[in-house]
Amino acid sequence: MEIAKEKLLEMYRKLLLARYVDDKLYELNTTGAFTGWLHLGAGQEAMPVAVGSILRKDDYVKPSRAMHVIVAKGAPVLGIFAGMMGRSEGGSGHHGGFNPEYGLLGASTSLGEDIPIYVGAALSMKIQKKDRVTACFFGDGTSNRGPVHEAMNFAAIWKLPIVFICENNQYAISMRWDRAIAASSIADRAVGYGMPGMEVDGNDVIACYEAAYPAIERARAGDGPSFIEAKTYRLRGHWEGDPETYRSKDEVAEARKRDPVVGFREQLVRMGVLTAEEAGRVAAETKAEVEQAAEQAQKLPVQDLEAVKRQLLGAASA
Amino acid sequence: MQARKDITYRWAINHALAEEMRLDPMVVLWGEDIGIHGGNFGVTRGLVEEFGEERVRDTPISEIAIVGTSVGAAMTGLRPVVEIMFAGFIGCCFDALFMKLGTWRQVHGNIPVPVVVRAPMGGAGGAGLEHAYCPEALLIHSPGLKVLVPSTPYDAKGLLKTAIRGEDPCVYLEHIALYTKRGPVGDADTLVPFGKAEVRREGKDATIVTYSAMVYKAMEAAERLAQEGIECEVIDLRTLVPLDEEAIYQSLKKTGRLVVVHEDMERGGVAGEIMAKVMENAFDYLDAPVKRVAALNVPNLGGPMESVCLPQAENIVAAVKSVVRG
Fold first, then answer.
1. Is B19 a catalytic residue?
2. CB proximity B297 to A under 8 Å
């Protein structure tokens, strides 16, 4: 399929934005600007960037690990940093960056339990005859959970406007996906639900775009759900500080050669979409944008915890 | 309230659903066998015929998805009323109910989550186990959920209507043994407010605080005790969250003696919470130690064991006598 030059450039910028936000969160976390467990997603940006570049602002989206799809959908980066650092202008509640204006309805740390929530949004759109699509990301590990099965079956029998995207990054913490799943493809499960399923190179932005676009169009047209498995690789540990005893440094080094950020830049230069020099300029601008947002977030007043408590207790007694 | 002919508790629920669905097209139902089958207990009979399959949706056997989807649907405009066929199946959707439905509004941007989860509960006819489970202690322990426990057709209808029109998630526990109870109900505009207990019987000697089907056991006990000259006040809580603490304290001011009764297991039950509240806020009104009457701390095996496991009127009679006579 033909992808317009503007769309390719948009995706390149978003790819960099996602990576730099990831990097910056690492830096802020390790220098103590905020505490708590951090699950980054370097290496997995291609599919979230493609999907975030296809969806409308009013479509619903559930991220898998990391902030990639939130960034790619256009939610302000400032909100992500402010939310993570407990600043007053944070995205929403206690979950940094989950800005409902961008179709984010929250995410669960009990994995896959949020997928029914997004299937509920898709059901709601169908009943209300609105043409908003839902895109639901999850990992290979999450794909084994019960709620995913129940929710995907609901979506299939009711032909809901939703796309399920499994980012197979090879590992659920330490459990490599082929030790957790006997089948050779997670996408094959789609057959069992009666929905189209396909595998795609999850490090190739253009391949991801070409897989996601028809699935999102199909959902919007009211023809039902689809399932895409994006094969990718988690370049960092499951959390920052993960000793990664479960894989070799060589394996990670090998995977780094397929870094989607590098790959997409080379591809765009080869296609003549932009020169190496222009690519460098986009990178510098994007990096500056991220630095500025992080700096701005740090200057925001810290959340008034007493006010939050009052709000919580007020809601509880209402 | 204009006088209306008596209907069953089951039909009171059905009428509340139908009336609210006529009023608001965003009220949508889903659950197992609620469509053409009319619900496992016949509560949704006739609704698919009137409102169609788009708004009365049969689901596969998938409790997680039934409750989980209600959260997302409510955040995006619908007012789902979903059914879990038995309250004992709440274990099948624990995360969806306790970690999502109850908390999502406060965790994620204060978007209202107007959901009602209907769940038939309690012992009836000796079914036992998952078919007779009382989940209310788990529910009140979880933030964000309103917990409704109607005992009469009037409350069954009025509380459900209030719940459907509200902005917060409610778990509506309909007692299986009460489906055939008859009584008057309010009209289409009659709502029963949350957090307002009802005094079912006035008395000066002891207060029995209870809810749901145990209201009838408590009334039976109170009649027997009256023959022996002990006059009990019976308070029907109607909702556990919010809890009408004031109604309990006001009654204790008069009686000075308290027995809390519920069908759920004693350990970690609602009674413990109520007794703690009384200790904290109404200790000075008490003339005797408080007592509770609840199910044995064992599974309700059902069959002939049901009456052994669950509290009976004679247990209540004995408890009241012990607090009155010491």
1. no
2. no
* DSSP letter string, B58-93: E--S-HHHHHHHHHHHHHTT-EEEEE-SSGGGGGGG
Whether the per-residue pLDDT at A96 is higher than 70: the answer is no
A305 CB contacts (<8 Å, ≥6 apart)?
none
Q: How confident is the model at residue A92 (pLDDT cuts 50, 70, 90)?
A: very low
Q: Tell me, what amino acid is at A232?
A: T
Domains of chain B in start order, with CATH, are 7-183 (3.40.50.970), 198-325 (3.40.50.920)
- Token readout for A254 is 């090998």
How far apart are alpha carbons B131 and B113 in whole angstroms? Answer: 28
Domain of residue A76 covers 5-317
User: Does residue B4 have a pLDDT over 80?
Assistant: no
Q: Which residues of B236-274 are buried (b: 16+ CB within 10 A; e: fewer)?
A: bbbbbbbbbbebbebbbeebbbbbbbbbbbbeebbbebb
- Nearest residue to B295 (alpha-carbon basis) of B144, B129, B46: B129
Residue A298 CA to residue A301 CA, distance in Å, equals 8
Selecting among B32, B63, B174, B263, the annotated active-site residue is B63
pLDDT in tens, B63-89: 999 999 999 999 999 999 999 999 999
Tell me which DSSP letter residue B114 carries: -
Tell me how far apart the alpha carbons of residues A165 and A181 are, in angstroms, rounded to a whole number.
Answer: 17
**Which CATH number goes with the domain that contains A169?**
3.40.50.970
CB within 8 Å of chain A, chain B residues 22-41: 26, 28
A30-39 tens-digit pLDDT: 999 888 888 9
Element counts in chain B: helices (H) and strands (E) = 12, 14
Nearest CA in chain B to A152: B65
User: In angstroms, rounded to a whole number, what is the distance separating the alpha carbons of residues A291 and A285?
Assistant: 10
Interface touch B68/A115, C-beta < 8 Å: yes
Rg value, chain B, Cα: 19
Distance CA B161, CA B189 (A): 9
| pLDDT band, residue A274 (cuts 50/70/90) | very high
Integer Cα distance of B215 and B197 in angstroms? 12
- What three-state secondary structure class fits A50? helix
Number of folded domains in chain A? 1
CB contact under 8 A, A312 and B106: yes
The structure tokens listed for A173 are 């913490």
* CA B299 to each of CA B92, B215, B309: distance values in angstroms, whole numbers, following the listed order: 17, 22, 8
Write the CB contacts of B149 (distance below 8 Å, at least 6 apart in sequence). B136, B173, B175, B211, B212, B237, B238, B239, B240
ipTM of this predicted complex? 0.95
**Is there a contact between A102 and A79 (Cβ–Cβ < 8 Å)?**
no
Q: Which pair of structure tokens corresponds to residue B46? A: 């006739």
Here the tokens at position B4 are 């209306």
Report the pLDDT averaged over residues B141-165: 97
